[in-house]
Amino acid sequence: MTTLAVVNQKGGVGKTTVTLGLAEAACAAGRNVLVVDLDPQSNASAGLGVWNASPNIDTVLAEETPAAALGAITGAGWPDGGPCPQLVPGSYALASREPQMAADLVGAQDRLRIALAGVSHDLVLIDCPPSLGLLCINGLFAADRTIVVTEPAAWAADGVDLMRSTINRVAQRQGTPTVTGIVLNRMGRTRDNAYWAQQLAERFGAELLPPIPQRAAIAEASGQSLPLRALGRRPGAPEAALAFDELWADLEHRLG
C-alpha cells in the first residue's frame, strides 16, 4: 500500500482537483483506491458525491483509536459502471477538531496514521488542507510519499520550497514522507503561464510530474460530482482524463 499526501500550504492551487483526477485514473488502471478528505471544506467528498456522512474524518480523529478509519470508509457516489474510489468522508467539524487536538500534548500529530492501521488499499490519497496546521501535519505523518501541487504563477516556487521544508522536517523525525514529485496544475496557453512554467522547470527540473491543463471540463466534473469519463466527448474532457492518466502512470513508476 502507498499512502500519498497531496499538499500545498497555499489555497486555490487545485489540490482536490488533482486528488480526484488521480483517484479516477488509478481506479481506471485497476488499482483499489481510498481517498481521505482531510480538508474541513470537504470538497473532495462533494466531488465524489458524498455529503454529511457519518461516521467521517472528524469521528476518526476524535480520539487516538487504532484502525478507526475502517469504520468510516464509504463508497463514492459516482455513477455505476465507471472507476470508483472509496472515501473517508470529510467534515466541516474538522475546523473545531484541530484546536482540540492541539490540546493533546502527546501524539496529536499521529492520530490519522494510527487510524489508518488495517487499511489495505493499493493507494491511499490524503487530500490535505491548505495550511501548515495540525491537520496537514497529521496527513504528513500518515503518508509515506507526498506530491506538491502548484500552478504556473508568481511566487509558486517559493510556496513549493516552503512545503518541501515542512515535509523534510517531518521526515527527519520519522523517516517519511518523501516528495515524489511536483504537479503543475491549471497549465494554460497564455504567455504568462508559459513564463512561470519555465521558471518552475528551471528550478525543479526532473521533480516535475506531467502537468494538468486548465480545462473547463475538470471544474465541470467536480461541480457535478462526476468523474471526467462520465462527461464523454464533452469539450476538454477526454484531454483532461488523458492528462490524469499520464500523471498517474508517471507517478506509479516513481512510486515503484
How would you describe this structure to a colleague?
- The structure is a single chain.
- This protein is of the alpha/beta class and 256 residues long.
- The chain has one domain: 3-Layer(aba) Sandwich (Rossmann fold), CATH 3.40.50.300.
- The chain has ten helices and seven strands.
- It has helices at residues 15-28, 43-47, 57-61, 94-102, 111-115, 134-142, 156-174, 191-204, 216-223, 237-255; strands at 2-7, 33-37, 74-75, 86-88, 123-127, 145-150, 178-184.
- It is globular.
- The relative contact order is 0.20.
Largest sheet: 7 strands, mixed
Radius of gyration: 17 Å
Low-confidence stretches: none
Shape: globular
What would you give as the CATH superfamily?
P-loop containing nucleotide triphosphate hydrolases
CATH class: Alpha Beta
Number of helices: 10
Secondary structure tally: strands: 7
What is the strand content? 5-15%
Helix/strand-derived class? alpha/beta
**Neighbour order of strands in the largest sheet:** 3-4-2-5-1-6-7
CATH fold-level topology = Rossmann fold
The overall number of domains is 1
Task: Provide tags for this entry.
single chain, 256 residues, alpha/beta, Rossmann fold, seven-stranded mixed sheet, 7 strands, 13% strand
In short:
By secondary structure, this protein is an alpha/beta fold. Helix content is 42%, strand content 13%. The chain has one domain: 3-Layer(aba) Sandwich (Rossmann fold).
Write the layout of secondary structure elements.
Elements: E1 2-7, H1 15-28, E2 33-37, H2 43-47, H3 57-61, E3 74-75, E4 86-88, H4 94-102, H5 111-115, E5 123-127, H6 134-142, E6 145-150, H7 156-174, E7 178-184, H8 191-204, H9 216-223, H10 237-255
Parallel strand pairs: 1-5, 1-6, 2-4, 2-5, 6-7
Antiparallel strand pairs: 3-4
